[in-house]
Design a protein that fits this description.
This protein is mostly helical. The protein folds into two domains: 23-117, no CATH class; 139-357, Orthogonal Bundle (MetI-like fold), CATH 1.10.3720.10. The protein has helices at 23-45, 50-53, 56-78, 81-115, 139-170, 173-187, 191-205, 213-237, 241-249, 254-265, 267-281, 286-291, 310-319, 325-357. Keywords: Cell membrane, Membrane, Phosphate transport, Transmembrane, Transmembrane helix, Transport.
C-alpha cells in the first residue's frame, strides 16, 4: 500500500533564504525616497514658503542614489555579490530610461497644458484672415502642412526607395560607394541650406522673391530623401538571401523577386523609415520660411502663392503677437499640439499599412 504524502511547502523568500522577496526592492525604493524627501523637507522648512522652496528634482536624484546604495549593500549581504551587481545594473538601466523619458513627458505635458486652451471648433474652422486679436484659427496652416508634406513624401519616397534598392541589389564598385557617401553627407545638411538651395534655383529660373508651396515641398524632399535611403537600405540588407535564392530557383526574374519577395518582407520597416523621414521634416520652419512663405488666408494651390504651415504659424504667432499677446501665444501652443497629434496619427496609419501589406504567415 502506497502512502501519498504532500510535498513540503517551498521556502518563502526572506533575508535568510538567499534571495530577497519581490516586494523588497520596491519597499527599499519607497524608503529611499521617503528619507530623501525628509532631508529636503527639513532644509526647506526654515524658509517663508516651504512648499515652493521644496527641491523636487534634488529629492528624486538623492532618492535614486540612496536606493542604489541600499539595494547593493542589502543584496550583497542577503544574496550574493553577483546578485548585488545585477540589481545595481538594473537600477542604473532603469534610471537611464527614466532620464531619457523625462524630457519627452515634460514636453508633452507642457504642450498639452498650454495648447488645450484653444482646442475649439473655431480654431479648426477659421483662418487668421482679418484677425488681429482674439479668435482666429489654423485651418489654412493645417491644409498647408498636409499638402506640402504629402507632396514632399510623393517626391522623396520613390526616389529614396529606388536608390536603396539599387545600392542593395544592383550597386557595386565606385558608383555605389559614391552614392552612399553623398547620401551620408546629405543626411547632415542643415535644413536652412536645403531651403536656400531651392530658393536659389527658383530665383534663377523664375524670379527673385518667389514663394510657393511647391518650393517648400521640394526643400522638405531634399531633407527626406537621405533618411529614406539610409533606413530602407538597412532594412533591405537584412532580408535573408535564402528568400532571394529560392525565388531565383523557381525561375522568377530579379525585378519580380524584389517586387514580390524582398519589398513585402521588409515593408513594415520601410514604412517606419518613411514615417521617421516625415517626422523629421514636418516640423521644419527655416526652409519653409524661405520657400513657402506665410499667409493669413487659406491657399490650397501649392503651385501658386504662399502657403502657411503649422511650424511657421507657431513661429509667426510667437514672434508677432499683435494686439493681444496672450491670444497669440495660446494659438502658437495649440498649433504645436496639433502638429504633435498629426504626427501621432500618421504613425498609427503607417503601422496599419505595414500590418496590411506584411506577408501573411501560414497557420496564424
Amino acid at each position: 500500500m502506497t502512502v501519498l504524502t504532500s510535498a513540503p511547502p517551498a521556502p518563502s523568500a526572506s533575508l535568510t533564504s538567499g534571495r530577497l522577496p519581490k516586494w523588497a526592492p520596491w519597499a527599499l525604493l519607497g524608503v529611499s525616497f521617503a528619507v530623501s524627501a525628509a532631508v529636503f523637507g527639513v532644509a526647506a522648512a526654515g524658509s517663508d514658503t516651504p512648499l515652493a522652496d521644496f527641491n523636487i528634482a534634488g529629492t528624486v536624484i538623492v532618492g535614486i542614489l540612496l536606493y542604489m546604495v541600499i539595494i547593493t549593500v542589502i543584496s550583497s549581504i542577503a544574496e550574493s555579490r553577483r546578485k548585488a551587481v545585477d540589481r545595481l545594473m538594473t537600477a542604473l538601466v532603469a534610471t537611464a530610461f527614466l532620464i531619457a523619458l523625462l524630457p519627452l513627458v515634460s514636453l508633452l505635458w507642457t504642450v498639452v497644458a498650454n495648447g488645450i486652451e484653444r482646442f475649439d471648433a473655431e480654431f479648426f474652422s477659421y483662418s487668421m484672415r482679418n484677425v488681429v486679436g482674439d479668435g482666429g484659427g489654423i485651418v489654412h496652416a493645417i491644409w498647408g502642412t498636409v499638402l506640402i508634406t504629402l507632396t514632399a513624401t510623393i517626391i522623396s519616397v520613390p526616389i529614396g526607395l529606388m536608390t536603396s534598392i539599387y545600392l542593395v541589389e544592383y550597386g557595386r564598385g565606385k558608383i555605389a560607394k559614391a552614392i552612399t557617401f553623398f547620401v551620408d553627407v546629405m543626411t547632415g545638411i542643415p535644413s536652412i541650406v536645403a531651403g536656400l538651395f531651392i530658393y536659389a534655383v527658383f530665383a534663377l529660373l523664375l524670379r527673385p522673391g518667389i514663394s510657393m508651396g511647391f518650393m517648400g515641398a521640394l526643400a522638405l524632399a531634399v531633407l527626406m530623401t537621405p533618411v529614406v535611403v539610409r533606413g530602407s537600405e538597412e532594412l533591405l540588407r537584412i532580408v535573408p538571401n535564402e528568400l532571394r535564392e529560392a525565388s531565383y530557383a523557381l525561375g522568377v526574374p530579379k525585378w519580380l523577386t524584389i517586387l514580390k519577395v524582398v519589398l513585402p518582407t521588409s515593408i513594415a520597416g520601410i514604412m517606419t523609415s518613411v514615417m521617421l523621414a516625415i517626422s523629421r521634416v514636418i516640423g521644419e520652419t527655416a526652409p519653409l520660411l524661405l520657400t513657402a512663405g506665410f499667409t493669413q488666408s487659406l491657399n490650397t494651390n501649392i503651385f501658386d502663392g504662399q502657403m502657411m504651415t503649422l511650424p511657421v504659424f507657431a513661429y509667426n504667432q510667437y514672434m508677432n503677437q499683435g494686439t493681444n499677446p496672450d491670444a497669440a501665444v495660446a494659438r502658437a501652443w495649440a498649433a504645436a499640439l496639433t502638429l504633435i497629434l498629426i504626427v501621432m496619427v500618421l504613425n498609427l496609419l503607417a503601422r496599419l499599412i505595414a500590418k496590411w501589406f506584411a506577408p501573411k504567415l501560414s497557420g496564424r
